[in-house]
Amino acid sequence: MKSVLIDIGNSAFCKTVFTDGGSLCPVRRVGRDCLCSTVAGAFDGEEKADVICMSTVAERDAGLESFLRSRCRKLICLDAFTPMPLKVDYDTPGTLGSDRIAAAVGAQSLFPGEDCLIFDFGTALTVDFLSGTGVFLGGNISPGLGMRFSALHRYTSRLPLTSPSVPGRVTGKSTTEAIDNGIVLGIMFEVERYINDNPGSRVIFTGGDALFFAKMSKTPIFVACNLVLAGLYKIAQFNV
Questions:
Q1: Which H or E run includes 202?
Q2: Is residue 113 left, alpha or beta, with left meaning phi > 0 and alpha meaning psi from -120 to 50?
Q3: Is residue 144 included in any domain, yes or no?
Q4: pLDDT band at 121 (very low <50, low <70, confident <90, very high)
Q5: Quick check: 45 pLDDT over 80?
Q6: SS3 at position 26
Q7: CB burial class (10 A; 0-12, 13-18, 19+) of residue 26?
Q8: Distance from C-alpha of 132 to C-alpha of 73, rounded to nearest angstrom
Q9: Which residues, in sequence order, are bridge partners of residue 206?
Q10: Residue 17 sits in a domain of what CATH number?
Q11: Quick count: other Cβ atoms within 10 Å of Cβ 120?
């Protein structure tokens, strides 16, 4: 099965994978304005993919969807109503981000039968709960690492915009260190509370800042930087 998997997040870039049933590597990171040409360049002549499965947190783009539909036999624009090997238990499924859904399916494929706690360290920090019986139980959303640094600078008069680093001590001895510690350790304390409140759950880190926070975790975790793409692949298989 020839598949194209597309993960469009909040940044100006998106991730794409072309697979004929093998591994999901290499993952290509391309600008959104280059997505159509990237997909078109993956095929010769009139060749089409069997399925294109896309997760996007952006507004629906009719032009993009029309183009993708022309390059495949089946286009899946993932949402909570897409057929998938997972039950969604969410009060407002129409508002549920497709990236969160795909990550949950990816976690289920990696650890079937296990309760999972999924942390996605992206523009936003999301934590989602997946039962071992294959039910997406919901989760929470808070500002991500970069957003916290930016907001603290933007909404104050004199606090500088700094860059994150792994704190060497808990107590900041300068304003820069205090900001860094407050944000980075604040996120870790947040994460650790979720982990401690859910003993026995498989802990999975994903997203652009996953490796940064994995260095500080005191709990055994599994890092899957392309968890959304892994989920999209399973959803594509389920639908074709």
A1: strand 202-206
A2: left
A3: yes
A4: very high
A5: no
A6: coil
A7: exposed
A8: 33
A9: 120
A10: 3.30.420.40
A11: 27
Q: How many Å apart are CA 143 and CA 191, to the nearest integer?
A: 13
* Cβ 175 vs Cβ 161: under 8 Å: no
Omega before 167 within 30 of 0, i.e. cis: no
The boundaries of the domain holding residue 169 are: 113-227
CB 71 within 8 A of CB 52: yes
**What is the DSSP track for 39-105?**
HHTTS-TT--BSEEEEEESSPP-HHHHHHHHHTBS-EEE--TTS--SSEE--S-GGGS-HHHHHHHH
DSSP per residue, 92-161: -GGGS-HHHHHHHHHHHHHSTTS-EEEEEESSEEEEEEE-TTSEEEEEEEEE-HHHHHHHHHHTSSS---
19 in the same domain as 64 = yes
Interatomic CA distance for residues 180 and 172, integer angstroms: 8
Looking at residue 240, its pLDDT comes to 85
Q: What is the structure's pLDDT at 41?
A: 85
**Residues taking part in catalysis:** 99
Q: Is residue 211 located within the same domain as residue 122?
A: yes
Number of domains composing the chain: 2
Does one domain contain both 125 and 219?
yes
117 close to 127: Cβ distance less than 8 angstroms:
yes
The torsion of the CA quartet 194, 108, 13, 213, rounded to 10 degrees, works out to 30
Residue type, 213: F
pLDDT at 173 over 90: yes
- Give yes or no for a contact between 9 and 102, defined as CB atoms under 8 angstroms apart: no
Cα 141 vs. chain centroid, distance in angstroms? 12
